[in-house]
Design a protein that fits this description.
It is found in: Secreted. GO terms for molecular function: hormone activity. Keywords: Disulfide bond, Hormone, Secreted, Signal. The model is unreliable at about 1-20 (pLDDT under 50). It is built from 1 helix and 4 strands; from the N terminus they run H-E-E-E-E. It has one helix at about 1-10, and strands at about 25-35, 35-45, 65-80, 85-100. It has a single domain, classed as Cystine Knot Cytokines, subunit B.
Length: about 120
């Protein structure tokens, strides 16, 4: 259940957010399943990019360690009126750029388009 909630946090995170490229704590609203159906919960997530140098050429040798926007996470419980059990959801406490943890996330090259903030 907690893994599903975390995936929902990451999927919803970008919707309607201000443009920022730094890794920081951001407010988010996620949908969590409860005994009365889906309910919206306000939480915080880590969002943004970390500085990374990409090599000019592809080498089988040296690859700089990629940093990703990671956070200190905890779980909170919210009780819903009419439900015998509370719902558990993730809350980011702090965010920092740290070396990508290959045990918990994909650390390969991102092959999609990188969206940039508009220049004003």
């Amino acid at each position: 259940m907690q893994l599903v909630v975390m995936a929902a946090v990451l999927a919803v995170a970008g919707a309607g957010r201000r443009c920022s490229s730094n890794c920081n704590l951001t407010d988010a609203i996620i949908e969590v399943e409860s005994c009365i159906g889906n309910v919206e919960v306000r939480t915080t997530i880590c969002q943004g990019q970390c500085y990374h140098e990409d090599l000019v050429y592809i080498s089988n040798g040296y690859w700089p360690e990629q940093e990703t926007c990671n956070g200190e996470w905890s779980y909170e419980v919210q009780h819903i009126p009419g439900c015998p059990e509370g719902i558990t959801y993730p809350v980011a406490r702090s965010c920092t750029c740290a070396v990508c943890n290959k045990d918990h996330m994909f650390c390969g090259r991102y092959l999609g388009d990188v969206h940039r903030c508009p220049s004003y």
